[in-house]
Write a structure and sequence with these properties.
This protein is an alpha+beta fold. 40% of the residues lie in helices and 22% in strands.
């Protein structure tokens, strides 16, 4: 037991005895923000860290500037036991009484006011190393070894040291770690000194950092392997893995320097830090852009070559590009407050597609960008959605800021404006912004001002219409060739799903509409800023009435395009082969969405699904599948499900059976990726007996030998086998999940365990959440939310939560940006009746305020149920007629 640990119990008792004395005189804690009466100018932090232990000892020194004489200083602190706290000014040192202020704050109360000017705070304290949460300082076990990591974004640096835990406080840090002598210690900066502290321990000191906000400070301790990934302009690049796993970093070690060089070229300035370590975390399911010490989930970065897959490699490259883009956009220049977090996350999401697309053009990243936009629009169509730049008034608002609106909608809006003003012009604006604000903080107006300067026009008013109001514009186009120059009649309104309580007439956008059209055998592009409810766009290059008009060129605009039946038919004539792949995906994706808004009949959408089901391009075929998913929506009446399965089997069965579950010699990457999506869809929803039987045979063989199934196909194959499987199969999956040491295999096994349709098996799987057999960070989504997808099991997760809420809450960890508990209302994802809605609301409404990030999740789940009810009523008759006639 280390020095100071014996003080803990006594100190806690003594500390609590002072509380009544100060309760009457201490002002209430800040509501959310600390204010700027006192600001930090530098931190020096020394921590004793031992992987496997539950506590750490810390000493923190903070240089501050006091702007007004004060007897009380507020800081952020969560779960820290402070033994001593002092303040040193120019002429005296004062001991503070430390008084907690709720879960997030503590005050230092002094016997006299501290004068304005510089001062120095010192703390001696202890904190907790979590074993079941990834917030603050936490540890994870790989084999028989423990590893310590940190995750401080957004507001968990306060779990590691007393600090001013807001992004605007950006100052230099120096970190020292006292660790077991056999362990490696890492932080944001290079090591400057290592010396023994005891016979069994050593102290590692790191260089003073460039200015950082508290949430970007990071460290890691453990018996790591370090894999060299080369260097870039003298900057060493490494992949840091758990012991013995270095051989699995071959792919990412090659990817990192290639993508980093392209990022340097784009930004026009070198990588800003002295080194770059990419640190692998077991179990976790996120990545974090800590300056020069990026952390990644194990399954993202590592893979044995024989078990690797195309999908994993592409995801790896995208996430690596995203996190490394943050080193400039987010770290070098940091957002001033969480309402502008989109500046970090949307930009990095947009940049990942751009940089990976340049590196691997054959991957068609523009198609991924279109699909990302379409996915964001589904969330953005809800009345309960939020703005990109949402006011931050609570911890829940901070947690909710890390969602698809910030990441995916924000990225799509950036892409639209880049397409409108031109990529090179946009890049000049980005470089100007970085040069103006390097090593500091910046805001949205400053970013838009830099882009506007480069563009030679003020884009802020138009851009702000997408940042400061929620929703998706629907831009309807109608070709008018009646007289004179052909033109387009444009109309805009908010696109809302059937049954939405929102008013489609209240929002207006300044939309950069870019169209492409064919006239006299030549295609032309034309743009305009569309700001009114209605407008005309003369097609200035058209010599005759256009053969076809694409209302969203390259699929780059953040709006849905609506066509009349004839215009849509002309646009997709000959399966739209005159369009780019991304454009065809965009048109079909809009068709899927417009079915849900009542602007396109489901029979039309299903006809398009049938027409494009055999398309030679895998991305277009996948868009066809998404259209056909109308038939597996919870709103489809039970008496239509058999006919829906018949449609799916007739439409996709022959091609799916030809592909089968097993790769063929000479298969292209696209063929293998199409197999991954098409075969399980046909098997599960087309009830294809051949594919189900084959999946079961292959799954049982794999469970015995761990061979015979391509890594690409293992997750969907196990899911299909489970969906039609029995208790014996469940038991085998369960045992394999307990035994495997390979994280992606464990994820696939857990997913399959949540995919059964037998209610008794589903209950058995959910009960595992109350045990410690699996880490909740891996099992929660699969075992609890997985059953909500199937009509036969959709009610069971809610029943389970109602019966076991207290046990669940004690088992669920706090995670990045909020609580796992905040996701509990999603057990209603499969509900589609007003009675189910009422039960869900009655149960969660009194409790949800205590789950950080939960209120919005409940509101969105309830709204989705309302929309499902309305969709069933509105679309059911047309679906029935179509399926009867098919």
């Amino acid at each position: 037991m280390k020095p100071g640990r014996l003080i803990l119990v006594f100190s806690s008792v003594a500390f609590s005895s002072f509380l009544p004395l100060f309760a009457a005189t201490t002002p209430p804690p800040p509501k959310l923000r600390l204010g700027d009466a006192v600001v930090p100018t530098r931190y020096t932090v020394s921590l004793d860290i031992t992987p496997g232990e539950s506590l750490f000892h810390g000493a923190a020194d903070i240089d501050i500037e006091i702007r007004h004489p004060s007897q009380i200083i507020w800081l952020n602190a969560t779960g820290l036991n402070v033994h001593t706290a002092t303040a040193k000014t120019a002429d005296r040192t004062l001991t503070a009484q430390v008084i907690p202020g709720g879960n997030d704050f503590m005050s230092l109360s002094f016997s006299e006011a501290l004068p304005a000017g510089p001062a120095h705070l010192h703390f001696d304290y202890e904190g907790h190393i979590s074993k079941n949460s990834s917030a603050g300082v936490f540890e994870l076990k790989e084999g028989d070894r423990w590893y310590v990591y940190t995750q401080f974004e957004p507001t968990d640096a306060r779990r590691a040291f007393p600090c001013f835990d807001e992004p605007s406080f950006k100052v230099p840090w120096q970190v020292s770690l006292d660790v077991p002598k056999g362990d490696m210690a890492l932080s944001n900066t290079p090591q400057t000194e290592e010396k023994p502290s005891t016979p069994d321990r050593k102290t590692v000191r790191f260089a003073v950092s460039k200015p950082l906000p508290s949430y970007l400070v990071a460290f890691a301790v453990g018996q790591f392997d370090a894999v060299k990934a080369g260097d870039l302009n003298g900057v060493p690049l490494r992949v840091i893995t758990p012991h013995g796993r270095g051989g699995e970093a071959q792919y990412v070690a090659k990817v990192i320097p290639q993508l980093l060089k392209r990022l340097e070229d784009y930004f026009g300035r070198p990588y800003p830090y002295e080194k770059l370590d990419s640190v692998v975390m077991p179990i976790s399911n996120f990545a974090m852009e800590n300056a020069a010490l990026i952390t990644y989930s194990e399954s993202l970065l590592l893979s044995k070559p024989e078990n690797d897959s195309i999908h994993r490699q592409r995801l790896c490259a995208s996430v690596v590009a995203h996190e490394m883009a943050h080193q400039w956009f987010g770290d070098l220049v940091t957002t001033a407050w969480w309402n502008d977090i989109w500046l970090n996350e949307a930009f990095a999401t947009w940049m990942e597609g751009k940089i990976v697309g340049e590196w691997r053009p054959e991957w068609n990243m523009d198609v991924d960008e279109v699909n990302t936009r379409l996915g964001a629009m589904r969330l953005d169509s809800l009345a309960s959605t939020r703005k990109i730049r949402q006011p931050i008034e609570s911890e829940s608002d901070i947690a909710n800021a890390f969602d698809d609106i910030t990441y995916s909608k924000g990225a799509a809006v950036i892409r639209m404006f880049e397409s409108w003003i031109g990529p090179e012009t946009f890049r000049k604006g980005v470089r100007l912004y970085l040069n103006q604000h390097a090593w500091g903080n910046a805001t949205t107006p400053e970013f838009l001002a830099a882009i506007s300067t480069a563009a030679g026009r003020d884009i802020a008013p138009a851009f702000n219409t997408f940042l400061d109001q929620p929703g998706v514009p629907l831009v309807s186009v109608k070709i008018d060739c009646g007289s004179g120059t052909p033109k387009l009649d444009l109309a805009q309104r908010r696109s809302l799903p059937i049954g939405s309580p929102a008013d489609s007439a209240t929002e207006r956008w300044q939309v950069p509409v870019c169209v492409k059209y064919a006239s006299d055998g030549t295609s032309h592009r034309q743009c305009m800023l569309f700001a009114d409810p209605r407008a005309e766009m003369p097609l200035t290059e058209a010599k005759s009435c256009p053969t076809w008009v694409l209302a969203n060129d390259r699929g780059a605009g953040y709006y849905r395009a609506g066509y009349d039946d004839q215009s849509l038919k002309s646009l997709l004539a000959d399966q739209g082969k005159h369009l780019r792949i991304a454009e065809r995906v965009s048109v079909l994706g809009d068709a899927r969405a417009l079915t849900g808004s009542g602007d396109l009949a489901p029979s039309t959408a299903l006809s398009l699904a049938s027409e494009f089901a055999g398309d030679p391009d895998k991305d277009v075929t996948e868009s066809s599948i998404q259209l056909a998913e109308i038939l597996v929506d919870p709103s489809v009446p039970a008496d239509l499900r058999a006919k829906a399965a018949d449609f799916i089997q007739k439409t996709y069965g022959p091609r799916a059976r030809e592909l089968g579950w097993t790769a063929h010699p000479g298969d292209s990457d696209d063929t293998r990726l199409l197999r991954r999506d098409l075969v399980p869809f046909e098997a599960e929803y087309g009830h294809d007996r051949f594919l189900i039987a084959d999946a079961t045979t292959l799954a049982l063989r794999w469970l015995k030998t761990h061979a015979g199934v391509d890594a690409e196909m293992l997750p969907p194959l196990l899911n299909v086998a489970a969906a039609f499987g029995n208790r014996a199969l469940f038991d085998q999956l369960h045992q394999a999940a307990l035994e495997t040491k390979e994280p992606r295999q464990r994820h696939a096994l857990l997913s399959a365990m949540g995919h059964f349709r037998d209610p008794a098996i589903v209950k058995t799987a959910m009960n595992l959440l109350l045990t410690k057999q699996f880490d909740a960070r891996q099992s929660f989504g699969a075992l609890l939310l997985g059953p909500t997808v199937n009509p036969d099991t959709r009610e069971l997760p809610f029943d389970f939560v109602r019966a076991n809420l207290d046990k669940l809450l004690s088992a669920l960890p706090r995670e990045v940006g909020g609580d796992f508990a905040a996701d509990l209302p999603r057990v209603g994802n499969g509900f589609c009746t007003t009675a189910e809605r009422a039960e869900l609301n009655d149960f969660f409404a009194p409790k949800i305020q205590s789950y950080t990030g939960g209120p919005r999740n409940l509101a969105q789940t309830l709204e989705k149920i309302d929309l499902c009810v309305a969709r069933r009523k509105a679309l059911g008759p047309d679906l029935a007629r179509f399926l009867e006639a098919y």
